[in-house]
Amino acid sequence: MQDIQQRLQQLENILRRELMLHIKDLSKTTEVAHISMDTSLGQVIDYLSKVKLVDTEIFTKLMKLDAAHCQLELGLYGLCSDCEMDIEPPRLIADPTEQRCTHCEQRYRREHRHELRLNH
Predict the structure, then answer these.
(1) Among 16, 30, 102, 111, which residue carries the largest CB count within 10 Å?
(2) CB atoms within 10 A of CB 40
(3) Where are the domains of the chain?
(4) In this predicted model, what pLDDT tens digit does every residue of 21-41 receive, in sequence order?
């Protein structure tokens, strides 16, 4: 459990640094709110929603990270959000914010193919 928390914290630090660079670039063209490394994850997500950055990869990663934190607190970490079975350990090792088992991820991608194409 502590290892999972450490991995999630490391990922959060990386994403926050990436976000700080993105905000710095954004601040050259528009006024932005003050977001720091200490700003809560929920506030960061709210901010990204307000400045219409929800279609960015970093927003998606932060949402998955927030979900993983919540699942960890609730004792549901590692369970598929669709079928509630265990997510395969190699998937969680590769991405500690993974939300679906392999089977459900494949089904999700098939069902949302059209949406995925529209985003590229």
Answers:
(1) 16
(2) 9
(3) 1-77, 78-120
(4) 877 776 655 555 667 778 888
Whole-Å CA distances, 60 to 36, 57, 66: 19, 5, 10
User: 15 and 58 in contact (C-beta within 8 Å)?
Assistant: yes
Decide if pLDDT at 51 tops 80. Answer: no
What residue has token string 């939300």? 99
Q: Which two tokens stand for residue 91?
A: 């998937």
Could you give the CA distance from residue 65 to residue 91 in angstroms, rounded to a whole number?
15
Q: Pick 82 or 117 by higher pLDDT.
A: 82
> With the C-alpha atoms ordered 50, 60, 35, 3, is the resulting torsion angle positive or negative?
positive
How far apart (Å, rounded) are the C-alpha atoms in residues 94 and 36? 28
Flag whether the pTM goes above 0.90: no
Q: In this structure, what token pair is assigned to residue 99?
A: 């939300």
Q: What is the average per-residue pLDDT within 60-68?
A: 94
